[in-house]
Specification:
Length: 470
């Protein structure tokens, strides 16, 4: 019921302001989604039970599956986009999971309300829906910590930022909302009109990548707009627990002392230097400044799994397209709105690999793994390696499935990589749109988006017989 209001009322307001004629699609969607939600609420209103761990996994997964499916209705009912059910679900799920892969072309000619709805889906998906759920469930007398654990598998620095989960959710929500407002104001100050500024602030802070134009941010051809996007993509890719701690203590030293933040910054700076040098010396761009602007923007956009574009990086020389795709596999920090395997996991895998080399030299040595001054338990290292193993196996299985639908190897590999890491744009046939893929391939990629958003384990655990045994 909450989603029916949040998802349709703002676009209805936009439709009224611009008189774009798309209001009936949102009214129908609101009535259907609200009615279904109300019916489910009436059926369960008198049931009061404490959530268990299994309930947490199931509810978090159903949030994305059910709301992603419900979110397709405006696309189905709209005469402006005329999407099939498969394409509508793909677009809605891509938005809600902040993937940014699209099947729609001709964005510049679509009604403003439809464009706004796409952007808003990503903003809600970035953090809003689960944070709202964590804040609301305790108010309803239902424990929320299971949801928090289910949404954040693997190593997380702070299980509780403040004593009560609802207060944690509110604190993160305020930070998320504040970043969005500041980002929109910055876009407006450097030249975007209010509609585009608000719309792009939604997808920048959510690390989503949807745009209101076919050329993405390249439409504006503005170095100032690119710079604003780079700054806020970088900020949104940082652990929100770190933002909270820095805000609470009113100091930036928290960032400088954080090991994951240091490694995250090192990756982006290193990739940017390599990309700019290759672009300049290969004469892809004629000037150093253009190579810097295009190169740095695309590195930050792809590495944080945002997916905005200002250049056709698919046609860049040598290894650059694949370098960026591998950067997206690393992704942003844990606890951010970004996708990928997460920087903290890659750092721990690297440290574990280095420890194994050292053990070859000193077999009896006890070599601890640390993040800063903190010792990392072996159980966490095992969990990270388990995640990596499952991630690789799932990636290969979906790659084989896409190849079976007739796609070429580069398209299939990049499509799986782009969707499971919630990136969006891929290489070759999926560099601009996924609309030409077979319906079977789109459903496979929808599953990949869900896996990425739920970090693999949360979704796969539902397919184990043990989960359903009492």
């Amino acid at each position: 019921m909450l989603f029916s209001a949040l998802g349709t009322f703002p676009p209805l307001l936009v439709s009224h302001i611009y008189s774009d004629g798309a209001a009936p699609a949102f009214i129908k969607s609101f009535l259907i989604i609200f009615a279904i939600g109300f019916l489910l609420w009436v059926m369960t209103a008198r049931s009061h039970k404490e959530l268990g761990t299994r309930d947490g996994f199931l509810i978090v997964t159903l949030f994305w599956v059910v709301l992603g499916t419900a979110g397709c209705l405006p696309f189905v009912f709209s005469h402006a986009v005329q999407l099939s059910f498969t394409d509508a679900v793909f677009e809605a799920l891509s938005g809600l999971t902040t993937t940014g892969a699209t099947v729609i072309t001709g964005l510049d000619d679509l009604p403003k309300s439809i464009l706004f709805y796409r952007q808003q889906l990503q903003w809600l998906g970035g953090m809003g829906i689960i944070v709202l759920a964590m804040a609301l469930l305790p108010m309803l007398g239902i424990g929320g910590m299971q949801l928090y654990r289910a949404e954040s598998p693997g190593p997380v620095k702070d299980n509780k930022l403040v004593p009560r989960l609802a207060e944690t959710a509110k604190a993160l929500w305020y930070i998320y909302l504040s970043l969005t407002i500041v980002c929109a104001a910055a876009y407006w100050l450097v030249g975007m009109d209010p509609f585009d500024a608000i719309s792009h602030s939604f997808t920048t802070v959510a690390i989503g990548g949807f745009s209101t134009h076919d050329q993405s941010l390249g439409y504006f051809d503005s170095a100032a707009i690119d710079a604003v996007a780079v700054i806020f993509m970088f900020i949104a890719g940082v652990n929100f627990a770190l933002h909270f701690t820095a805000w609470q203590r009113r100091t930036i030293s928290q960032y400088l002392r954080d090991t994951e933040f240091q490694f995250y910054s090192f990756i982006l700076v290193s990739l940017s230097i390599v990309t700019v040098l290759v672009l300049y010396f290969s004469a892809t761009y004629s000037t150093v400044s253009e190579s810097i602007v295009k190169g740095v923007f695309q590195v930050v956009s792809i590495a944080t799994t945002t997916g905005f574009t200002t250049a056709d990086f698919n046609s860049w020389p040598l290894f650059l397209p694949y370098l960026l795709l591998y950067a997206a596999i690393i992704g942003a920090c844990a606890g951010s709105t970004g996708g990928g395997m997460k920087v903290i996991r890659i750092l721990l895998i690297f440290k574990q690999g280095l420890r194994e080399v050292q053990r070859l030299i000193h077999p009896k040595a006890i070599i601890p793994i640390k993040l800063g001054r903190n010792l990392v338990p072996d159980r966490v290292i095992e969990a990270v390696w388990g995640f990596f193993a499952v991630y690789v196996m799932v990636f290969m299985a979906m790659l084989m499935a896409l190849l079976a639908t007739g796609l070429d190897i580069i398209t299939a590999f990049s499509a799986v990589g782009a969707c499971i890491n919630n990136l969006g744009p891929g290489l070759e046939s999926v560099s601009l749109t996924y609309g030409y893929l077979p319906a079977t391939a789109k459903w496979i990629l929808c599953f990949a988006m869900l896996l990425g958003r739920l970090e693999v384990f949360t979704l796969l655990v539902l397919f184990t017989p043990m989960f359903w045994k009492r």
